[in-house]
Amino acid sequence: MVTQHSQTRPGRFQPQGPLRGTVKVPGDKSISHRALMLSALAIGESRISGLLEGEDVLATAAAMRAMGAHIERTGDGDWTVHGVGVGGLMQPSGALDMGNSGTSTRLLMGLVASHRLTATFIGDASLSKRPMGRVIDPLSLMGAEFTASPGGTLPLMVRGLVPAVPISYRLPVASAQVKSAVLLAGLNIAGITEVIEPVPTRDHSERMLRGFGADLTVEVDAENVRHIRLMGEAELKPQEIEVPGDPSSAAFFIVAALITPGSEVTVTHVGMNPTRTGIYQILQAMGADLTYANQREVGGEPVSDITARHSILRGIEVPPDVAPSMIDEFPVFFVAASIAQGRTTTSGLDELRVKESDRLALMAAGLKAIGAQVEEREGGLIIEGTGGEPLEGGATVSSALDHRIAMSFAVVGQHIYHPVTVDDVSPIATSFPTFEAILNKLQAQND
Ligand code: S3P
């Protein structure tokens, strides 16, 4: 069984002159998922402001409701959650529809694994192809039982175990989703659950678990490997959470401003967690004119305003160890590289092949179709940039149910000779429902 998306809608993108103005992007997707989940596990009322109201996060909200939490939208981005307490999740009456959201699926599989309930997870055609074995493996060691579709995919059924067994698990892939699934399972398991993380990934779960009062420690050993230890059975206390703007969403407008002559765009209130800001470091190393203002802390996360001005970027060899901190930004980064001066080389990006789409194949095919010089390798792309000239355009590209592919081609459409058509822009609503409105606003400042 595969769930359907909202209606297919093509999008046509072409330059409208410089992009100018100050905008705010919606709340961080990763933090929004975690805010809902942890609030639903605290006893009492938590309040969340700035929650991302995209389809992925709404799938998490619906699932937590189906398992007993009271979740209510009280205003634009404002939500209240009455949690059931760790261990208090209830048997959902139907299948949990995860839509397009890998984060919802993998994190919730972790939560369910140590509760006495059985849950079936279903999703759209994109999600139904994505590998779940990476969470099934550690959660099975903890005692949960799984019946998955061939290849360890959705639809799948999880039977949680109480009491489950605490484990020490060394991550075989650099994945914050796998790390978080194990930690969330550990919340309802007596004893210490340990995740050993050789390559650092986004640490929102660790920060927020601590914020909710969990006993969680992080030790970095002599080999620079992180040992994250969580003491279960945890008692979480309700919180007020302000969700910072999503640096992954901001990156689309930052790159659009950098490649479009005459542009100057400020994005306010952007999360600057160092496990997320690889894109900004690499763009600066390429010569991007980026300035940061109003640096502060919001909800345990660093936040800043970022201003980007049009820049001639220089090609770069991206070190593979930066990949986890810019993992979701590669599609739009490839756009920047296509318009940079000289060659950009990326490697070690095999994970991009199992995101919402095969992002290496999709970006290579789409960029080539609009005139970019791209060579696809097993673990990355090699791109010869135009040196600041627009790309040719004049083709239709496929978004393959991948929001970030659709938005990346909307960005390249700002510096192109002939319009580019994205066959389906509806997936943008999974992470950034206001993307097109904000793009229009930045274009309109020219009038
Ligand atoms: C996420 C982790 C990343 C990222 C995804 C969100 C999260 O996935 O690509 O968009 O919120 O934990 P992996 O951890 O699988 O790399």
- The residue fraction in helices comes out at 25-40%
Shape verdict? globular
**Assigned CATH superfamily of the largest domain:** Enolpyruvate transferase domain
N-C termini distance: 49 Å
Largest sheet: 4 strands, mixed
What fold name goes in the CATH topology slot of the largest domain? Answer: UDP-n-acetylglucosamine1-carboxyvinyl-transferase, Chain
Beta strand %: 25-35%
Low-pLDDT segments: none
Number of domains: 2
List keywords for this structure.
447 residues; alpha/beta; UDP-n-acetylglucosamine1-carboxyvinyl-transferase, Chain; 2 domains; 4-stranded mixed sheet; 28% helix; globular; binds shikimate-3-phosphate
